[in-house]
Specification:
It is a single chain. This protein is α+β, with helices and mostly antiparallel strands. It has a single domain (2-174), classed as Molybdopterin biosynthesis MoaE subunit (Aldehyde Oxidoreductase, domain 3). The chain contains four helices and eleven strands. The protein has a six-stranded mixed sheet with strand order 1-2-7-9-3-4, sandwiched between helices. A hairpin with a 4-residue loop joins strand 10 and strand 11. Helix 3 runs antiparallel to helix 4 (144-161). One of its GO terms (biological process) is Mo-molybdopterin cofactor biosynthetic process.
């Protein structure tokens, strides 16, 4: 596991084989000075509606506690790819380079949206089973627009620049490397 927590810059970066904890990410970015927190959660799910409902209910709970405006995005990996059911994803990374690029993305976000307060980027490595989170990006700022734009920017940049590779492993035991 690689983890970097920078309280002075407000960044929390983590690559881990452990389950990702959405509540910890939300707690980290939540602050009384922020009016908005936006979150992207990438899940490997079979039933999208059920998972979105669970995340939505959790977000409502966070709104009541933090008095923040919460926008959430749930990304999902399709249950089937090329007509074959996915059993799990296997993630690998060039970890030290990935962390460096995560921090560069955080810096770019702060240049584009100077009011951003905290940024949390957590990505799973190893095998990620159905219904497990593979990536969390959470951003807080005084206003919703900055957080929505920053989260979208972050996830797009992660997919383009970070050396993390994904292998789809199918229920029939075959596998195929895919772009992250």
């Amino acid at each position: 596991m690689k983890e970097m927590l920078e309280f002075d810059t407000g960044n929390w970066i983590m690559l881990t084989e452990d389950m990702l904890n959405l509540e910890s990410a939300v707690d980290f970015v939540s602050h009384e000075e922020n009016g908005a927190v936006s979150i992207f959660v990438g899940n490997l799910i079979k039933i999208r509606l059920l998972n979105v409902t669970v995340v939505y209910i959790h977000m409502l709970h966070v709104v009541q506690i933090c008095m923040l405006e919460i926008s959430n995005f749930t990304g999902s990996v399709r249950k089937s790819s090329d007509q074959v059911d996915v059993a799990y994803l296997a993630y690998e990374a060039y970890e030290s380079m990935a962390c460096k690029i995560f921090l560069n993305i955080c810096s770019e976000i702060r240049k584009k949206w100077p009011t951003v307060h905290r940024i949390c980027v957590h990505h799973r490595l190893g095998n990620v089973a159905v219904k497990e989170k593979s990536v969390i990006v959470a951003v807080s700022a005084p206003h919703r627009a900055e957080t929505l734009d920053a989260v979208k920017f972050a996830i797009d940049e992660i997919k383009k620049k970070v050396p993390i590779w994904k292998k789809e492993v199918y229920v029939d035991k075959t596998s195929k490397w895919k772009a992250n």
